[in-house]
Each structure stands twice: as structure tokens, then as C-alpha cells.
Amino acid sequence: MSTPPLLTVEGLNVAFESRGHFFLPAVRSVDFTIGDGEIMGLVGESGSGKSATMMAVMGLLPPRARVTGSVKFRGEELIGRGERFLRRFRGARIGMIFQDPMTTLNPLLSVGAQIAEAVRIHDRSVSARAGMERAVELLELVAMPSPRQRASQYPHEFSGGMRQRAVIAMAMANDPQLLIADEPTTALDVTIQAQIMELLQRLCSERKMGLVLVTHDLGVVASVANKVAVMYAGRLVECGEVTDTFQAPLHPYTRALLDSLPKLEERVARLNAIPGAPPSLAGLPSGCAFHPRCRIATDRCTLEDPVLRRIRERDVACHRADENVPMTLAVPEDVP
Amino acid sequence: MSISSHSLPTMRLPQWATAPVMLGGFIVIAWAVIALTIHWWAPYDPTMLAGRRFSPPDATNWLGTDALGRDVFSRTLYGVRQSLPIALVVIVCSVTIGTTLGAIAGYVGGVFDEIIMRFVDVTLSFPPILLAMAVTASLGPGLENAAIAMVVVWWPIYARLMRAQVLAVREREHVEAAVASGAGPVRILLKHILPLCWSPIIVNATMDFGQIVLLTASLSFIGLGAVPPTPEWGQMISEGALQFYRWWIAAGPGMAILSIVLGFNFLGDGLRDILDPRSQ
Lengths: 336, 280
Prior knowledge:
- The complex is a heterodimer.
- Chain A is an alpha/beta fold.
- Chain A contains eleven helices and twelve strands.
- Chain A has helices at 50-58, 83-87, 111-122, 128-141, 147-151, 160-171, 190-207, 218-224, 242-247, 252-259, 299-303, and strands at residues 7-18, 22-34, 39-44, 65-73, 76-77, 94-97, 178-182, 210-215, 227-232, 235-241, 309-311, 314-316.
- In chain A, the strands form two sheets. In chain A, strands 6-7-8-3-9-10-12-11 form an eight-stranded mixed sheet, sandwiched between helices. In chain A, strands 2-1-4-5 form a four-stranded antiparallel sheet.
- Residues 330-336 of chain A have low confidence and may be disordered.
- Chain B has a single domain (19-50, 60-279), classed as Orthogonal Bundle (MetI-like fold).
- Chain B is elongated and about 75 Å long.
């Protein structure tokens, strides 16, 4: 009998209540699976629902968010469970790293004490002293120089990169099987970014730990992840193996995202921005949410929202994904 | 290694030692020392005859004597033994009650929050002196009752302050990170929210010390606080209030109140600069 996959998300919906009875659909029927040791990049524009998806997995959304669907961790359903139940997962089996290490640490506790706390929340038999010892080990694990000394220092004595290491150490405190990193390097400068990504990659391969990397940096995804999931307006539009997906994207949005990146070998006067703006959740276009900006949209796209289908070992939500339409760079005329 | 280790030891005040803190701290400490030691060195017993009635200030009675021939200077100094402990008790009780309820209201929210905060609104809509007078009057005159009345009037201030702080701090990212690491609500409130909420409470409490001293004196002035012959500032001022040509009877306690309120205000101001550098 095989063990159930690490994380299975099926038909996940998140809707935010606003002004009484309006519900803004932030995440719409998202499905994906993550296996042990797998690194999945979850990419998309701001507001595309990447963070909301992962917050829903952790059960961290505010009460005014309505979450439906299924999130299974090792076969155990997490949606609709009580706080008390979820607390045993948070920090223990699922670790989380937030975007800005400047604000994610409690300024009034020493870094060691915070890491020790993360350990002791889930194992009350650990003494304060043993917790500190564990904190030092964890700081060592994340390659913090002179960890013993660092453990007794406060967050303000740390640089940005050091803090993010400390945050990672905290997330690793209970040897989680899954790590969720919500834009872990956005607030850091580029050289530190590379170090942090390397660290996360090492931890994943050493410990067979799954990692969801929420980011809008396609470069990071390409260099680190095995798998990529692209979100647009709350939907998963394409999900598949990284190299395949980036080399031959099946969804026009993925294509457009890749085209918009600056290239080393070409000199272009202007970057190929995607025309238009992402739709507001309150007024999603009919049919496929991407059709107003799509280069290959047809009448069908304006009427019918495509479902996620499996094409060439990839999940794509596009009516024309199997037609081999050339997704040229010509800007469609009907876009303002 | 560093330059400072080779530099000459210079007398430099620490950064927090600003003029208001030093002055306010000095006044407050001086009064505290007086309160603790006055029985050893007071020139006269505050309730005993010390000379003729109404004798003006001179070498024997530095601030003269009152209608019963008691030494105003000694009575003024002894007065701090009423004001300071009362202020301390009132502040400690108000802060305890107020911050507890305020923190729970801010963190739990919902109906509990509504009930507490509406009660706070109602209490704060009365002028404090009026409400304190009403409560004391219904309990009967006396310093204990005045203290109870002042706690009733004062705790809502801290409840409101604490609630606002908790609401602000709970949105900080480290709180979310604590939730994500599996911490329960009690731990989050006590360890990750409350420790960041104290600075305005401390500043306000310090300043309110002065206000409570003033309020105690006011209640005593109108006969709702200290009962004669207790040497109490408000009481003493009311005794001297009608003696137009014997200014010294009210001058001693008046100056005492002025200095102690000023001291606490300076100290509170200075503490604000230290604890909340952004407000400067």
C-alpha cells in the first residue's frame, strides 16, 4: 500500500465577503498535488490568488473568507476542520515562511527563544534549555554563522538575509514534511536571494520535504522548482513540469508571461508586456478570464470557462491548448 | 578593535536621560523619599499644636500655622503620604482592570468587545470629577471610597487604550507567523501581542499619577475625600481657601500639588520620548 501523496488540493475555492453579501472569488477550483521532496513554484500576478490558495491550505484565512473544496495532507482532510485540529499541523507538519523577514519575527524575543518556542508549542516535554539547544542546532542547519551567539540576539541585531535564515530555522523547527514559502526572497537583495533559495533547495533534498514556492519571479522557479503552477484571476491555468512548461507553454498566459521577460541574447526596444490589466475579482469577464488579453481567443473563449484538462502530462485550462496554435507576439487589434 | 575602546572615559549621560526625565524623575523621587522618611525629620507633628493660630511664615514655622496652630510645612510634607499611595493604588487597579478587559475585548472581539466598549463609552462620557463625586457621595466620604470611585472612573481609559493597541499589534506579521507555527490564542495574546502594547500604557499611567493626585485633592476639597484632621492637600486648601489674608495655609499644599503633577507630567513626557521614538 502506498502512502497518500503529501498534499492534494482539489477544487479549492476561496471567496471573500465584501459589503455584506457580495463574494469576491479569489480562488476558483484549484487542483494540484505535491509529492515528497518536490518543489512547486506557484506563480502569477499580484492578486491572482497564489497567497490566498496557500493561506487556505494552512487555514489562516480570516473568518470572512469562505473556503470550499478539499485540501488533503497525507490523505487527511484539512478544510472545515477546527482550529484546534489545524494547530497540530501548523508549524509541526507544515511550516510556513513569510515574505518580509523584517516583520515576521517578534522584536521582543531573542531569535533563539522564538525558535525554541516553535519547538515547544508542539512538544511540551521539551524544557526551555533543551529548546534553546534545539534552536542552536536549527540555526546551524540554516548555515547561520556562530549560531550559539546568534541565538541569544534579538531580531534587530540581524541583517535581512540572517533574519530570513532565522525564519526558515523557525519553520524547520519540527521537521515539517511540507514547507510553504510565500515570496521568501522578495524583500531581500539579489545575492542574498540566491543564498536563501539554495538553502531551501538543500533542505528539501536532504529531508525529502515538499516545498511550495509562492512567487512572481519566474527565474527563481526555473532554477529551483521541479514543478510550476501558473495562476490567473484565481484559477490555475497551467500546471506541469518546469522545463517542459517553460520551453513549450500550452496556455497563452504562460506564453505571454515568458515573452514578457527580458532576454539576454536579444536587444529589444520595449519588453513585451501583456496588454491590458488583470481583471478585478468583482467583475470577472465571461468565459475564460484571460480572453480579453489573449492573443488567440475565439468566440468560444468569451462564453465558456475552460476546465483544467490533462494534455501532454500537463494540466491546462485553455480551449485551444491542443490545437497547436502559434502564439505569436503580434498584439491583437481588439485589445485597448 | 573599535575606536571607542581607546577613547578616554568621558562623563556622558545615557541617551534616555533628557532634561524632562531628569527633572520629573527628581521631583517624583524626592516626594517618594519624603513619603517614606518624613516621620523621622518632620519639624512638627502634623496634627499637634505647633505655635499660635494663623502665625505667618517665619523661622520656626516655615510655612506658618493654620487655624488650629498646626505647622503648615509639616502638614504639607505629611500630605504626600495620603496622595501618593492613593494614586499608586488607583493606578495599579485601573491599569490591571482596564488593560485586562481592553486586551480581551481587542483580541476576542464580537459581543464581548461591544459590551465592554459601550460601557467604556458611557463611563467616559461623564466628566471624571462629576462621576467620581457621585460614586464617592453614594459610598460615603473617606479616602478609601474616593479611591474606589477613582478606579471606577479611570479604568475605562486604559481599556480603550489597550484595545486600540491590541487591534494594531494583532495585525502585525509576526503574530500571523506565530499562528502559522501552531501557537494557540492564549500564547499569542500573552507572548506575541501584549508585550508590544505596554509603552503607551506606561506613559499614560505615569501622567495619570498626577491627575489622580489632583482628583484626590479635588474630592477632599469638596469634603468627599480625607476627613479632618488628616493632613491631606485638598482638605488643607479648602481650610485655607477662605483665609484671604493668610495665603500661606493654602500655598503649601498648592505648591505641593503643582510640583508633583508637574513632576509626573515631565516624567511621562520623557518616557514617551524613550518608549515611542516615532512620536517625536
